[in-house]
Write a structure and sequence with these properties.
Layout lengths: L1 E7 L3 H12 L4 E4 L13 E3 H9 L3 H7 L1 E2 L2 E5 L5 E6 L12 E3 L2 H12 L5 E4 L2 E9 L2 E8 L5 E11 L6 H6 L6 H11 L2 E4 L2
Parallel strand pairs: 1-2, 1-11, 2-8
Antiparallel strand pairs: 3-7, 4-7, 5-6, 5-12, 9-10, 10-11
Bound molecules: flavin-adenine dinucleotide (FAD).
Length: about 200
């Protein structure tokens, strides 16, 4: 199989990239490890500048329906001590959207997947894990494993977009630097913090 673009990962980044490419009729194949939307909440906030992206996709109204403006964010540690505060207006800012918007990541993914289903140029394959990647002069060979059957195949692409999240196979495969020890410590503490809406 050969496609111009393979996108590894159907989180918000991969789904958005596919939608933007699909708008320009760029054929792409999105490969996702899980069979459907991963149900756990994770990302919860985007600002008015990023809100322009669903706006550009024609999804501003749909995104507004699954999100709610707030007055900013507080970053707390596990003992609920405030680490940082970001004050924002819930009213439309200079980009025409509320400056702070809370949402639930699975809702956003459902919204983006429904949108992708309307774009002919985009194919999304779930239950499909990318297990290897190689690049040569002819393009990129993406090794894919069907998690249901265990069957392996190779997909050939001109470009691969690395949208596979924090523990990225692609980044490791192409030798893109891993975080420094300090960054890892900060990130480790961040995963035990939470962002909360405040009024
Ligand atoms: C426990 C946890 C808590 C978090 N809490 C918050 C929070 O409170 N607030 C906040 O704003 N953000 C939070 N985040 C961060 C948030 O999840 C990310 O910012 C957001 O998910 C990034 O989106 P993404 O599309 O880049 O990556 P992801 O959402 O991680 O999507 C990557 C996708 O790639 C798929 N994938 C990975 N490897 C492969 C492979 N080899 N083959 C096929 N598919 C693959 C994954 O299954 C996944 O669906 C949290 C993350 C975690 C893990």
């Amino acid at each position: 199989m050969k496609v111009p673009v393979v996108i590894v990962g159907a989180g918000p980044t991969g789904l958005t990239a596919a939608a933007l490419l699909g708008r320009h009729s760029v054929e792409c194949l999105v490969l996702e490890r899980w069979a459907s939307v991963y149900p756990q909440p994770r990302a919860v906030h985007l600002d008015d500048e990023v809100h322009r992206i669903p706006g550009r996709l024609g999804l501003a109204g749909e995104f507004a329906a699954i999100s709610w403006p707030c007055h900013g964010l507080r970053l707390l540690d596990p003992d609920l001590r405030v680490l940082a505060e970001f004050h924002r207006s819930p009213c439309a800012g200079r980009y025409g959207y509320p400056e702070a918007n809370m949402f639930d990541q699975p809702d956003l993914e459902h919204l983006l997947r429904a949108h992708l289903a309307t774009i002919d140029a985009v194919t999304l394959r779930g239950n499909t894990e990318v297990t290897g990647i190689r690049q040569d002069r002819t393009g990129v060979q993406v090794e894919v494993t069907d998690r249901g059957t265990g069957a392996r195949e190779t997909t050939h692409a001109d470009y691969v977009l690395d949208c596979d999240g924090a523990n990225s196979l692609i980044r490791s495969a192409i030798g893109v630097g891993s975080p420094t020890a300090t960054t890892r410590r900060v990130l480790a503490s961040m995963t035990t913090c939470m962002f909360t809406e405040y009024r």
